[in-house]
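QA checklist item 7 of 12: single-chain prediction sanity check.
[x] sequence parsed
[x] length recorded as 509
[x] structure emitted
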Amino acid sequence: MHPAGSSAPASGGLLSARWVVPIVLMALHFMVAVPLILRGTMTGRWGEDQINYHEPAVRIFAQELPRPNLRDYHSATTPGYHLIVAATSRLLGDSTATLQLIGSVFTAVLLGTLGAAVMLRHRASEIDRGSLTSRPCSASSRMAMVISLAVCLPLVCSMYVFQAGVWLLPDNAGWLGVLLVMLVSLRFRAGLGALAAGSAALVALVLFRQIHIWAAGLLWVGAWLSVMDSPRKSESIRELLTYPSLRLRRTMGAVAATLPAFVILYIFYTMWGGLTPREFQGQYKGFNPAAPAFILAVLGVVSVFFIGFIAGGLWLLVTRKRVLLGTAIGIGLILALVPKTSFSVADGRFSGLWKIAEKLPLVAHHTAPGIVVLAVLGSIMAAAWFVSLPWRERWFFLAALCGFTAAQSASFQIWQRYTEPFILMLLALLSSGVRGVQVATDDAPERAADDARVPGVVFNTMPLLRVAGPVLLAFCLVTLAYVTMRNAPRANLFESSNLPPGPSSGPSR
């Protein structure tokens, strides 16, 4: 029996509330994914990727275990996902449906982890601001739960995430690794625990998708910024350079923790003679300078639906930070006007928002006006997120965006399936940490450089927009997914594929 006022019951309630959002997200995924898996639906690009690449790789590995041939196999990614599915299939069975159900667990863990992290971050942020009580059953607590669920729904409804959760695709295993590295980096603490967790997450990530080695930079940045935990009166950029020796020691520790991932990548590089298995090395060469513009375009479109979180930041840009606003517009224009942004299958510029470039006239056979507009919008939205986030998290956001963009630029294939899940995941995670805004009044004018005071009409609609915006985005994404997948043709088995015999092979595919 706990005395009145004891925090023990609240803690238990908080633990229960913590699991509501992840359980709902995972349940939504399985409710739709499992029937499709059991029906044996095999259509579209996603189905062709499974039957021609990833399923053959899994089946061959299952036959070769415990000594699989990792030098050349039917996937352009590192083999972690395929090895886990193959090993598990030795225990649970190797039917196609069983393999897909095993693979779908990665998506469930991804959604559950994101939901739990967003819920805890949102509650902690609101409690710190004094706008949320610690009682789990209070109205404010329920609102936090609703908002947390809303911001995660777009990721559930993204067809690229959903497809990788139904068919044998390693994408979501990679996104899970990215999420784990981000969570460690966001709350990096000095000590062996954080270093070990970050190192393990990055190693797992590189074993799933080698292109995500860029996430090592998040751990370095997280270590450098970890000195900024204490409240400070000034948020000058000079604060990034305070306590240089302490920052350097922590950062070097983080660099050391990332070395195992680089060693693993180097081993695969020497084994393959490149950054992908030999079968795919001709497909992933080149550099695509249009990647920054496209990623900004996706960020701009998605951020419109998160306007309830960055309205204060946008107001700051327009009223008090016009230099930053002008800089953002200039950067967006440069990144969108210099590279070629026309629709081109040969150059990897197709699918998703690239369809805008295909439908609208080009300028000088070089520039797609729609991409330019969306890239500038994305640059403005990036600036709004930057000023809306707490001091430490704004630099993390910038580092994550730049690191991801650099990695995507290294490949000529700039597809929406490689960009959309990251943007949805990043904004869902960071939306739970945006700073509060206040109503601008005559007796409380805006003075602080980092506080946003917005008109009352904006302030009053922000709680509604924080739920309605992401939910509307989720509806748009699920509608697009339904139309796309309903009209998709039957998946074709390529003649060059070498699918091992199994219960799923044959004309019934």
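[x] summary fact logged: Residues 11-169+464-493 form one domain.
[ ] second reviewer sign-off
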